[in-house]
Amino acid sequence: MARLTGKVAIITGGSQGMGASHVKLFVAEGAKVVFTDINAEAGEKLADSLGDNALFVKQDVSNEEDWQHVIETTIAHFGQLDILVNNAGITYAKSLFDVSTDDYLKIVKINQLSVFLGMKYAAAEMKKTGHGSIVNISSMNGLVGGAIGYTDTKFAVRGMTKAASLELSHYGIRVNSVHPGVISTPMIHQGDTDDAVKQFAKAIPLQRIAEPEEVSKMVLFLASDDASYSTGSEFVVDGGLTAQ
Predict the structure, then answer these.
(1) Are 31 and 10 in contact (CB under 8 A)?
(2) Residue 165 burial class via C-beta count within 10 angstroms: exposed 0-12, middle 13-18, buried 19 and up
(3) Which of 165, 198, 183 is nearest to 87 (CA)?
(4) CA 51, CA 170: separation in Å to the nearest integer?
């Protein structure tokens, strides 16, 4: 039997890259999936390719009313909520001296505030059934230093995961964070970066960057009942980078 049969999931940032990979795998594993993104064109196209078990909803993940709408739509369409994957995120390739206050607040809203809002509203639904799994996508830069703004928010996601896991465990809700390393997604292929990525791959113990599906399989595990005794923990998918 598929690992997510009978379960309903919300996945943010699901129109492309790692998020789209999560959506496809969850549907293939039997879940009904509501996935969200600011990119409506790509989202609608992906939903059309996946059939009745996938529904796209346009969402600004930093907007509280949008979160309420996504939760309400999920319950109205599929009748329950079992899984939340907080995947949406952005990054800047700017130095400390070049990041403006507006830049900083934007990345905090999308990478950090969105996770808080998602957990708050999803957990309220999960409490009603006494079970649920929340998977927050952090980064290896939630464990070690990296770009200003991005690193800050990814450390925050790690901390929020631990705090929420302690509170929500009493309701049968598990909360874990996933920490990807260098993954082949549009985020790392911005501009003329291919040569730099290839060079960086040489410093990875496994000598390559990962495919999105390799992260999705970890997310699937945490979302499923196979991870029934895992909560408040970090799961690293980085090819050994943070082991050095």
Answers:
(1) no
(2) buried
(3) 183
(4) 36
Q: What is the CATH number of domain 8-236?
A: 3.40.50.720
φ and ψ of 122, to 5 deg: -70, -45
The residue ranges of every structural domain in the chain are: 8-236
Number of C-beta neighbours around residue 124 at 10 A: 12
Q: Which of 16, 48, 47 is nearest to 34 (CA)?
A: 47
Instruction: Please give the Cα distance from 168 to 166 (Å, whole number).
Output: 6
9: helix, coil or strand?
strand
The C-alpha atoms of residue 115 and residue 62 are separated, in whole angstroms, by 9
Quick one: three-class SS letters along 56-110? EEECCCCCHHHHHHHHHHHHHHHCCCCEEEECCCCCCCCCCCCCCHHHHHHHHHH
Q: What is the pLDDT of residues 146-176, one digit of tens each?
A: 999 999 999 999 999 999 999 999 999 999 9
Q: Which residues contact 105 (CB under 8 A, 6 or more apart)?
A: none
Q: Is 150 a catalytic residue?
A: yes
* Residue 188 binned pLDDT confidence (cut-offs 50, 70, 90): low
The answer to pTM > 0.90 is yes
Q: Are 10 and 70 in contact (CB under 8 A)?
A: yes
Using only C-alpha atoms, what is the Rg of the chain?
17
Q: Which of 92, 150, 171, 229 is catalytic?
A: 150
**37 three-state secondary structure:** strand
CA 165 – CA 172 distance, rounded (Å): 10
Q: Where is 54: in which H helix or E strand? A: strand 54-58
